[in-house]
Amino acid sequence: MATRDEVVAVLKKCYDPEIPINIYDLGLVYNIEIGDGTGKVEVRMTLTAPGCPASAYIQHDVKRKLEQLPGIKEANVNIVWEPPWSPEMMSETAKKQFGWGI
């Protein structure tokens, strides 16, 4: 079974094509649940805006990449809007990439 660290490493390889920062550091990932021995992983995440034109692409990209991890048979990626995303949710790494807080 994949570990949380392995799942996070995959999420850090997923990007909104309009923003050069991965979805994990952007603060878009709200929850990760790894089924104990089931081969399933659930990701609850949001997008920077409800009208994001890349929403289907991002959701499919996350699912596809997670399902390539050894031990993951099924990945469910749930897009939610509560709580709404805000720039304060970004990691310090992401803020530095944007030039904030330097």
Backbone structural class: alpha+beta
- Based on CA atoms alone, the radius of gyration comes out at 14 Å
CATH architecture: 2-Layer Sandwich
- Return the domain count: 1
With strands numbered from the N-terminus, the spatial order across the biggest sheet is 1-2-3
Broad shape: globular
Tell me the β content: 15-25%
Quaternary class: single chain
Q: What is the CA-CA span between the terminal residues?
A: 39 Å
H/E topology pattern: HEEHEH
CATH superfamily heading: Fe-S cluster assembly (FSCA)
Record field, number of beta strands: 3
Give me the CATH fold name: GMP Synthetase, Chain A, domain 3
In the predicted model, the low-confidence regions spanning at least 5 consecutive residues are none
- Main sheet specs: 3 strands, mixed
Compose a concise summary of this entry.
This protein is α+β, with helices and mostly antiparallel strands and 102 residues long. The chain has one domain (4-91): GMP Synthetase, Chain A, domain 3, CATH 3.30.300.130.
